[in-house]
Write a structure and sequence with these properties.
Layout: H1 2-17, H2 19-45, E1 52-53, H3 62-71, E2 75-82, E3 92-96, E4 102-103, E5 108-114, E6 120-122, H4 131-139, E7 144-151, E8 159-164, E9 167-168, E10 174-176, E11 180-186, E12 193-196, H5 204-213, E13 217-223, H6 230-235, E14 237-242, E15 246-252, E16 256-262, H7 265-273
Parallel strand pairs: 2-5, 7-11, 13-16
Antiparallel strand pairs: 1-4, 3-5, 6-10, 8-9, 8-11, 12-15, 14-16
């Protein structure tokens, strides 16, 4: 029995001392530590399990917004510029990811700023086309439909006049991108009515777009006492409207819808619950 144990021990020592086994063992150990070190590096590099809040830089000038993001261990990139009449030229009007989003450090935040000078576009000639065609043509050039007026005319829904700031405007005239165009449409020979859209929770721009899609006009705009700064004005949303939205409420085309806006989410939720 002892002799067998000696033989097994001798063979084991020969295997352990063999250079192939030694090399294999060394490679195994090195491979294990390499994989472990790689996983630890990736964990550190990607800040595994760590997330930070994206700061709100809307309303800040670009230099201030960039410094704020860098101080929060984030990077930033200017993605576009638009013209917003109510915002300060050069200030941030939107960001992606949105404020309060949970992200990892070194995340790129894409910023859109208010242009210092509005881009110029040429007014298309939409007289004689349908309301839908006019909208498509105007929006493709960065223009928007403002007030819509209906007059008695046999061709219902077709553009009879196009106006800018109350004055007739010809096709080809240069305008600031984002300008609103007033349209006068034929109302047909009978009274045409439409339903009232739900505007609660929409900002002023979204509400105006929705209203014009229903061929209505934006009426009185009322901000509550929570709206103080320019940023508040941009972020404010509708919490009340008149007339209210209802499948049973039908009003004449071209009618006005008054809106009340706030930055108090509690008011918006209360209106939605009602």
């Amino acid at each position: 029995m002892a002799e067998n144990n000696n033989i097994i021990t001798t063979l084991a020592l020969k295997i352990l001392n063999h250079y192939i086994f030694k090399n294999f063992l060394i490679l195994f150990i090195l491979g294990f530590f390499f994989i472990y070190a790689t996983l630890q590096f990736l964990r550190f590099y990607t800040n595994h399990g760590q997330a930070i809040d994206v700061p709100d830089v809307i309303g800040m000038r670009l230099s201030e917004a960039g410094a704020t993001l860098i101080s929060h261990r984030m990077r930033w990139q200017l993605s576009d510029s638009v013209h917003v009449a109510s915002a300060i030229p050069g200030s941030v009007v939107s960001q992606n990811p949105e404020p309060g989003s949970k992200v990892k450090s070194n995340r790129n935040v894409f910023l859109v700023i208010n242009a210092f000078a509005p881009e110029k576009v040429r007014m298309p000639d939409v007289v004689g086309v349908s309301h839908r065609q006019a909208r498509s043509s105007l929006e493709s050039r960065g223009l928007y439909i403002g007030r819509v007026t209906y007059v008695p005319y046999r061709d219902e829904g077709y553009v009879l006049r196009q106006l800018y700031m109350g004055q007739e405007i010809r096709g080809g005239t240069e305008l600031n991108k984002g300008s609103e165009i007033e349209l006068v449409l034929g109302g047909g020979l009978s009274s045409v009515r439409t339903s009232v859209p739900e505007l609660t929770g929409k900002n002023l721009s979204q509400a105006n777009t929705t209203i014009t899609q229903f061929v209505l006009n934006l009426g009185v705009i009322i901000y509550d006492n929570t709206v103080i700064t320019r940023t508040d004005t941009v972020n404010a949303v509708v919490y009340r409207q008149r007339p209210s939205a209802s499948s049973n409420t039908m009003i004449p085309l071209g009618s006005s819808v008054d809106v009340w806006l706030t930055v108090d989410n509690a008011k918006v939720r209360a209106e939605e619950n009602e």
